[in-house]
Amino acid sequence: MAILLDFSPTIISAVSVGDKTLGDDLNESAIRHLTLNMILSYKKKFGDKYGKFIICCDESNAWRKDLFPYYKYSRKKSREESHLDWDMIFKSISNIQQELRDYMPYHVISVPRCEADDVIAILSNYITENEPVGEGMFEENQDVLIISRDKDFKQLQSNRNIVQWNPMEKKWMREPDPKRFLIEHIVRGDAGDGVPNMLSDHDSFVLKKRQKPVRESLIESVYNNGVPDEHLENYERNKKLIDLSCIPTNYKDEIITTYINYKPKPKAKLLTYFMNKGLRNLYNSASDF
């Protein structure tokens, strides 16, 4: 059993809450406090059933940018237009992420050039298939819970032992047909990551070109009959960026090795951490982490 937490949206959610309540007074201390409280709430809600807690983190310079230079290109522009102090936020994220490694009784996994998506995709399948519960003839694959609002993880539900909880909407994300979901996602692209649909040019988002509309009939045709030759190149472009089974083998191996060799810190270190950072309200909850 395991819980895989998508860390970046968790801490960004903490930033959003802090911005609404503190405004210009938002600082690293507040972000730390809000983030740890979120982690504690997830541990309390799901820890008894799913057990092992794994925090999955992004690293910079994602390998997907080698395949597609425009990957997540628009996010930088969005930050530049934001009122938030992103220099402070990124420094806080880096510091808090390191503190989790130094003090937390959890696995905190990141691999150079990999996104948390890669870590979650690889570990969710690895744990279900390689860490069975029970003994002998009664061994069963483990259940794994992904905590994230990212719809990309719906494709992983082709493994029936993988489930997903959306912490923003506080509900389960269930996908009855993961294969169809993945095909539709590849055909439609991913605007949030700057990936155009299958019918449109590579630079559609960067140059604000109007994309050709994708009709439901096209998705049905691709699902039932495969990809038309004239769209195969763009389909393959999107597949490599979106299909989590396309993660290169070298990164897959490094993620698994990092996980196997990781040594979570003893829970006793939490008390020192909480006192050093002035987290007195969490001091009495240390045993719940």
Annotate the secondary structure layout.
Elements: E1 2-6, H1 7-22, H2 28-50, E2 52-56, H3 64-67, H4 73-81, H5 86-103, E3 107-109, H6 116-130, E4 144-147, E5 162-166, E6 171-172, H7 178-188, H8 216-225, H9 232-242, H10 249-261, H11 269-276, H12 280-283
Parallel strand pairs: 1-2, 1-4, 2-3, 4-5
Antiparallel strand pairs: 5-6
Helix pairs in contact: 1-2, 2-5, 6-10, 7-9
Overall geometry comes to globular
Distance between the termini: 17 Å
Q: Please write the string of helix (H) and strand (E) elements.
A: EHHEHHHEHEEEHHHHHH
DSSP helix count? 12
Question: Structural class of the helix and strand makeup?
Answer: alpha/beta
Overall helicity? 40-55%
> What's the assembly state of these chains?
single chain
Proportion of residues in β-strands: 5-15%
- How large, in whole angstroms, is the Cα Rg? 20 Å
Number of strands: 6
Q: What do the pLDDT scores average to?
A: 94
Largest sheet: 6 strands, mixed
Read across the widest sheet, the strand sequence of neighbours is 3-2-1-4-5-6
Can you tell me the residue ranges where pLDDT is under 50 for at least 5 consecutive residues? none
Describe this structure in words.
The structure is a single chain. The chain is an alpha/beta fold and 289 residues long. Helices cover 49% and strands 8% of the residues. It has helices at residues 7-22, 28-50, 64-67, 73-81, 86-103, 116-130, 178-188, 216-225, 232-242, 249-261, 269-276, 280-283; strands at residues 2-6, 52-56, 107-109, 144-147, 162-166, 171-172. Strands 3-2-1-4-5-6 form a six-stranded mixed sheet, sandwiched between helices. It is globular and about 60 Å long.
